[in-house]
Amino acid sequence: MKIALAIMKYDYGVEERGFSYEYYNLYLPLCDVYGKENILLYDYYSEVKQSGMDMMNKKLRELILSEKPDISIFCILWENQFDEETVSSLRRKTKTLIYFFDDPWRQKFVRHWIKYFDFFSTPDYYMYKQYLLEGMNNVIYSPFGFNSSIYKKLNVSQNIDVSFVGGYSPLRNWIKHLLEKEGLNVKFYGRGWGKNGNWISQEEMINVFNQSKINLNLSNAASYDLSFLLYAIPSFKNLKQLLLLRKNKEQVKGRHYEINACGGFQLSYFIPGLNQVYEIDEEIAVYENERQIANTVKFFLKNNELRNSIADKGYQRSQKDHSAQMYLKKLVDQIIN
Q1: Most CB atoms within 10 A, among 8, 220, 243, 301?
Q2: How would residue 289 be classed by pLDDT, with cut points 50, 70 and 90?
């Protein structure tokens, strides 16, 4: 089995920021399943920066024609890197799939691109059902899962009460404010926190998941809570982000699987579809609105037995059902069959 994978190798195309999400969670798991020698990594964004869009598409076509992969998978995170005629023409040479990350809130983008590929994927259970209702039988439900070679349970002490790993957003900053008002000390890691950010490496992030008694998973979608808007709007930084924000809907994300796969207790926003992959209150804890979070955090900090039970069951479920290696093998099998 030979697979061509067109992705951004580096995080948002910036080499100094390290490898991208899709490198860690698509390329490496595919290498685990099918062997590195059978996965053709095409870093399309680096090619665009080096040679321009036209040359990138030309080199992509040459790669497919010369290597003749069984399947070609495209991860288009931004809008128009690929030429529609080029990718459509490749369908005569290889089976093609466009792998989506954010299709629930990028529907105009999705509807444009799917007609140029043999197959397309969604990580969202209810979007998958919606596509089937519309007669799109070339859709594949493929949750993110976690890279089982990277996300692991470690033998470390839990010396962090509460943590959050993720980029700054006005909504997340408001939640931080609410927690601090209640006297809770929560460590925030990621791009945008503090003057110079509080960026941590992949390895450090996994340590945080293991070391934290409570791992928060916070939404960064649009919110119309009046108290939030009154808090956020006076800040120019927040106002700018709110005006540029396109994300109006949440979904189950890779983080849901990654925290649980490290044996961490997770307190997450609730989104329909989360209950399809984890048992709510048994394998993952949720909050229904931001005002609940502080009291819920206090409750679970006091209830060690319940917290540890949920964390352990979430870990066991992850190991059984949710590795990226397993999901990607299923995806490839569906395309081939």
Answers
A1: 8
A2: confident
Buried b / exposed e over 61-92, threshold 16 CB at 10 Å, is bebbeeeebebbbbbbbeeebbbeebbeebee
Most confident of 185-199, 239-253, 303-317: 303-317
Residue with tokens 């992030």: 205
Query: Is-contact 235 260, C-beta < 8 A?
Result: no
Tokens 């964390």 belong to residue: 311
> Are 270 and 286 within 8 A, CB to CB?
yes
Rg (CA), the chain: 21
Residues in the chain: 337
Distance CA 6, CA 29 (A): 15
Structural domains in the chain, sorted by start: 3-145+323-336 (3.40.50.2000), 160-321 (3.40.50.11660)
Q: Residue 210: CA atoms inside 13 Å, Cβ hemisphere, count?
A: 15
Give the predicted TM-score (pTM) of the model: 0.90
